[in-house]
Amino acid sequence: LSAAYALTYALARRGTACLTVRDTERQGFRIVDSERGSAQVYFFSTPAQLPQFWRYLFAFEDVAEQHFFALGALAFPRVILHPDLSFARFDGAYRDLRDRVVTALSALSDDFAVLYQLHLGLPHLIQAAMGQHHVDLSPESPKTRGSAKLMRLREKEYEGRRFTCEWHAKIERHRNRIHFSMPADELDGKILIGFFVDHLDT
């Protein structure tokens, strides 16, 4: 009955996930059929599996911009989305950028902190590893890091502390950047997503 209920919602373009027992092979997205039609339904047995489902909803339910960050708190649990973030600071329309932003934030949430520690913070190794997750990112150049004025543009205050968000994921080669901090103990090992921006001065 729960699968039938979820299918009814999925056919109406409303995502629903079904909790199942841990040992079953029915995990993740599965096609469910009925006389009314067929659609993907998500089956999960632990909370750790749910971010994949939340991320799926952005496109499946065509989530509007005003709801992006509320869903993002569930979809990207290992990053902190600063309250000041706005798609309006990108160059381009929200729906043209949304899926690429979801891809970048998913990889940052799942992989950046782990790879940063594994590769001892060495940028070229981290960049290569994150490239395997289809994310192009880098820290600022030595020239930019050498300018106190430019680096202040990359600082973001969060809960009374200031974080430098010099690492950035490139949504497009020539424009639109997601600036974020390194993993921080003050953030329980998470990274702060500090800026959505067309391009900061360099």
What does this structure look like?
- The structure is a single chain.
- This protein is an alpha+beta fold and 202 residues long.
- It is built from seven helices and ten strands.
- The protein has a five-stranded mixed sheet with strand order 4-10-9-8-5. It has a three-stranded mixed sheet with strand order 1-3-2. Strands 6-7 form a two-stranded antiparallel ribbon.
- Strand 6 and strand 7 form a beta hairpin.
- Helix 2 runs antiparallel to helix 3 and helix 4 packs across helix 5.
- It is elongated.
- The mean pLDDT is 94.
Residue windows where pLDDT falls under 50 for at least 5 positions: none
> Strand share of the residues?
15-25%
Assembly of the depicted chains: single chain
Biggest β-sheet strands, sense, barrel: 5 strands, mixed
Q: Which of globular, elongated, flat, extended, rod-shaped describes the shape?
A: elongated
Element-level helix/strand string: HEEEHHEHHEHHEEEEE
The number of distinct β-strands equals 10
- Distance between the amino and carboxyl termini: 57 Å
Q: How helix-rich are the residues, as a percent range? A: 25-40%
Query: Could you tell me the radius of gyration in angstroms?
Result: 19 Å
Q: Count the DSSP helices.
A: 7
Task: Give the helices and strands, then pairings.
Layout (H helix, E strand, L loop, with lengths): L1 H10 L5 E3 L8 E7 L2 E8 L5 H11 L7 H8 L3 E3 L12 H25 L4 H9 L5 E2 L3 H4 L2 H5 L2 E4 L2 E4 L2 E4 L6 E4 L10 E7 L5
Parallel strand pairs: 1-3, 4-10
Antiparallel strand pairs: 2-3, 5-8, 6-7, 8-9, 9-10
Helix pairs in contact: 2-3, 4-5
